[in-house]
Design brief:
Elements (H helix, E strand, L loop, with lengths): L30 E2 L1 E3 L2 E3 L6 E6 L4 E7 L3 H19 L4 H17 L1 H12 L3 H22 L3 H4 L6 E2 L2 E5 L5 H14 L3 E5 L6 H12 L7 E3 L4 H8 L6 E5 L2 H11 L5 E5 L5 E4 L5 H12 L12 E5 L3 H13 L19 H16 L3 E3 L15 E4 L16 E7 L2 H9 L3 E2 L1 E5 L3 H10 L4 E4 L14 E2 L2 E2 L4 H6 L2 E2 L1
Parallel strand pairs: 1-5, 7-8, 7-10, 8-9, 10-11, 12-13, 12-18, 13-16, 15-16, 18-19
Antiparallel strand pairs: 2-3, 4-5, 6-22, 11-21, 14-15, 17-20
The protein binds NADP nicotinamide-adenine-dinucleotide phosphate and magnesium ion.
């Protein structure tokens, strides 16, 4: 029996005193130059743009807008560092630098976490406990491979590809930088990377760490700016490898522009993951997993569990418990340790989410949102739920990238699999059941790169991550992540 009666009234939020993380230990410059050839340099044009705190709408720092000329200089520096220094260095020596970077990230973890939350809007609990530790863990993990590539690929004599051009999104700024940079460095490649325009600051702090680690100049270059800067990197003729994480639309543009070139390409794109809950699952545990999968981090997660497929017999009970849990979620100051849902990353993204909520209502799905308070300034979206979603509804097919969950029901295992697979995406999925056999049956039939069983959104550097279909191709993490950066 459920512990929660449908008629009970609940407080809309827990009565917790504010517990803001201090910003005293944060060192931010008023503006940041480009990081090229081991030093911070102004751009040729001198243009800059503001990096805004989405929770306050205040400018945190100004960031440099690079252009083609700056990208050319960065790629030249990366080429020189690759050919003369980094690819020639013994793996054990490269590994020492990468370990040093990982340790410095750990030492500066608090500062990095606070900047990540200020610049991107995610709750400090997420940046402190997940993003920053995982980013350091990626450097630790790949440092360990640097001198073992011949064991990873026996008799294949692996060699580096050359200069890697990398472009990353705003949802996990430092973690995505780590996913891209750590394996590239371990395998002897050099890097030119562009962070997302709204979240460049932790990548620039990482540049300071590269300086502290005395990483040889040109091994990693960080050029900030808008989409055109990303295009200038990936289309540059002296780039050997392109690694992109972002939207499926931009991924398709990149794939087209690289067709026929010799560049290697990996794409990590969007998703519309199904969290599948069977009647034999532990419902309370599943509710926690669903909340973690779509609401924490504002749903700004490519592998977010944005669809819920629930077995018909438990639909009403599960939805009731889920609404009850949603009522307790705290939306607000990302720096407050009690916050569950921080700020939406930008006003543009908030507009996108709000337009999808309107689309869902127009499509006739049932809408639910708790009435919790949100701050006056900043970009906010309360946790949102659509039930009675039809398979053809856009809110059940398209990536919203916000805290919006679409619920559907199923009766049989076959129907669950059919519905789960019925989107253009195939990045991730979740299965909640008491039966191991069901888990194995489902995971083998699901067209998703990652399937979590009785948990959700768990990451580890040893585990490969990547999609099927329009979610992209190639894997990051683990041994698979190494091969994307090697000629074998
Ligand atoms: P986006 O618009 O595709 O942007 C991603 C990055 O590409 C940004 O740095 C962006 O610069 C840059 N960019 C834009 N146009 C470009 C072009 N023509 N050529 C090269 N680079 C270009 O995506 P987003 O809105 O930032 O991020 C959200 C999307 O990323 C979602 O669809 C999400 O699913 C996906 N994502 C996927 C994964 C995964 O691992 N599969 C992980 C995280 C996010 P600007 O910042 O200046 O626009
Ligand atoms: Mg910002």
């Amino acid at each position: 029996m459920s512990a929660v009666s449908p008629n009970e009234k609940f407080e809309t939020s827990w009565d917790l005193a504010p517990a803001p993380e201090s910003t005293d230990h944060v060192n931010l410059e008023s503006h940041y130059d480009l990081f090229i050839d081991g030093e911070f340099r102004p751009s040729k044009s001198g243009n800059r743009f503001a990096s805004v705190n989405p929770a306050t709408e205040e400018t945190i720092a100004e960031v440099t807008e690079a252009d083609q000329a700056d990208v050319n200089v960065a790629i030249k520096a990366a080429r020189k560092a690759h050919d003369n220094v980094w690819s020639k260095m013994p793996g054990a020596e490269r590994g020492k630098y990468i370990y040093r970077i990982a340790r410095l990230m750990q030492e500066q973890a608090r500062e990095l976490a606070v900047i990540e939350s200020m610049d991107g809007g995610k709750p400090i609990r997420e940046s402190r406990d997940i993003d920053i530790p995982l980013a350091a863990a990626h450097f630790f993990y790949y440092a360990g491979w640097a001198d073992k590539l011949n064991y990873a690929f026996p008799n294949r004599r692996p060699t580096s590809l050359g200069v890697a051009g990398q472009v990353i999104p705003w949802n996990f700024p430092l973690l995505m930088a780590a996913w891209k940079i750590a394996p590239a460095l371990a395998t002897g490649n050099t890097v030119v990377i562009k962070p997302a325009e709204t979240t460049s600051l932790t990548a620039l702090k990482l540049a300071e760490i590269f300086q502290q680690a005395e990483l040889p100049p040109g091994v990693v270059n960080i050029v900030t700016g808008h989409g055109e800067v990303g295009a200038a990197i990936v289309n540059h003729s002296d780039v050997n490898k392109v690694a992109f994480t972002g939207s499926t639309d931009v991924g398709k543009i990149i794939q087209k522009s690289l067709a026929g070139s010799e560049k290697s390409l990996t794409l990590e794109l969007g998703g519309k993951a199904a969290n599948i809950v069977f009647e034999d699952a532990t419902i309370d545990q599943a509710v926690e997993g669903i909340v973690n999968g779509i609401y924490f981090n504002q749903g700004h997660v490519c592998c977010a569990g944005s669809r819920l497929l629930v077995q018909e017999s438990i639909h009403d009970e599960l939805v009731r418990k889920l609404k009850h849990r949603m009522d307790s979620l705290i939306v607000g100051d990302p720096l407050d340790k009690n916050t569950d849902i921080g700020a939406i990353n930008s006003s543009e993204q908030l507009n996108t989410i709000e337009s999808y909520i309107q689309i869902g209502k127009d499509e006739g799905a049932q809408f639910y949102q708790p009435s919790c308070p949100v701050p006056e300034k900043g970009f906010w979206c309360r946790p949102s739920l659509f039930t009675d979603v039809a398979q053809s509804n856009r809110i059940g097919q398209e990536e919203i990238f916000g805290p919006v969950l679409a619920v559907q029901t199923f009766r049989t295992v076959a129907e669950a699999i059919q519905k789960a697979n019925n989107t253009p995406y195939g990045l991730s999925a979740g299965v909640w059941t008491d039966k191991g056999s069901k888990i194995f049956n489902l995971t083998s039939q699901m067209r998703a790169g990652i399937v979590w069983a009785n948990t959700y959104n768990k990451f580890d550097p040893t585990s490969p991550f990547g999609g099927y279909k329009e979610s992209g191709f190639g894997r990051e993490g683990g041994l698979h992540g190494l091969s994307a950066y090697l000629k074998v």
